[in-house]
Amino acid sequence: MSAAEFRITTDLAPLRQFQIEANFEETKAWLTENLEPLRTMAVTPESMSQCKQYRASIRKVSARIDESRKMAKAAAPEAYSSFETKCKELTALCEEAANALDVQIKAMEEAAKQEKKNRLAEYFAQVVCDMAEWLTFDDCFNPKWLNATYAESTAQADINAAIDRCRADLNAIRALHSEFETTLLDEYTRTRNISAVLVKNETLGRMKAAEEERKRKEAEAAAKYEEQKAACAAVRMASAGDAVIEEHSEVGQVIATVEREAFERAVSEPEPTYTVDFRVFGTAAQLDELRVYMRTKGIRYGRVPQE
Questions:
Q1: What is residue 242's DSSP assignment?
Q2: Taking the CB of residue 182, how many other CB atoms lie within 10 A of it?
Q3: Rounded CA gap, 12 and 214, in Å?
Q4: Mean of pLDDT over the chain
Q5: Cβ(171)–Cβ(164) under 8 Å?
Q6: Candidate from 53-62, 153-162, 186-195, 262-271 with smallest mean pLDDT
């Protein structure tokens, strides 16, 4: 299909006094004759290349008409209105035919892309093998693979590289021998980023160390408390003479019972006072607690005279 040449046949200089003329009828007749078959033309894979040439030719004619319209409008605003209407009528004919081809061409191109994507997905399924658990086609898919200029063999090479990279990343994670390996593998599946996995491993290690240190300090504090509690209980038992507290209940409850009974006896009748000499061995904190306890209970104490 040869391209029509739309041209202005009027001198634009005296345009204000004259109507702008062009070969409207000639161009319209040519467009009507040549564009009619294109409106109903079916685009096939075999005719796609030729249809694209038709589309380009039609748009070239349309562009030339529109360019002439703009030239006339700039040169003669008064005479432009009629000229513009006629030009738009011609360009509408062009656009109608070009769009009819364009819809089909784009549909054919999208279908070709989908077919290419399906072939690449099938290739992925064939080569992924043992990595299927860790990698999907969507994980490694790149939209540029569907471009007509991107060779299918190159896209297949990209797929192979993605599978190899995933295998290497998993081997690197397992080589860490981390106690958090399951969590790290989940992190890799989510991010596909080996650097993020390594950061995650370090973070989990620091968190565990901090938690273990917290528990260690709590255990030390609890042990110290029990030690001091036992020392106080021993002092209380010693202050009651040689009485033995049986281990049938909590030490605190036994001591509370003994103290309550002693108080009741003190109220009912005065108790005799005894003097007991003994030595005490303990830390400074334990001795302070003993001193406070004896003062609280009204027990007098002092140094034993040297003989």
A1: S
A2: 9
A3: 93
A4: 80
A5: no
A6: 262-271
User: In this structure, are residues 117 and 159 in contact, taking their beta carbons and an 8 Å threshold?
Assistant: no
Per-residue CA distances from 227 to 19, 53, 173, 213, 234 (Å): 115, 97, 46, 21, 11
- The upper half-sphere exposure of residue 63, i.e. CA atoms within 13 Å in the direction of its Cβ, equals 8
DSSP 270: P
CA proximity to 101, closest of 55, 32, 37: 55
Q: How confident is the model at residue 218 (pLDDT cuts 50, 70, 90)?
A: confident
Question: Quick one: pLDDT at residue 260?
Answer: 61
Q: Are 145 and 158 in contact (CB under 8 A)?
A: yes
Distance in angstroms (rounded) separating the CA atoms of residues 137 and 135: 7
d(CA 292, CA 304): 19
pLDDT at 244: 43
Backbone φ and ψ for 8, nearest 5 degrees, come out as: -85, 130
Both tokens assigned to 170: 């998993």
| Per-residue pLDDT, 14 | 59
User: Which residue's structure tokens are 């996995």?
Assistant: 197
Residue 144: both structure tokens together: 């540029």
- What number is the average pLDDT over the span 79-91? 83
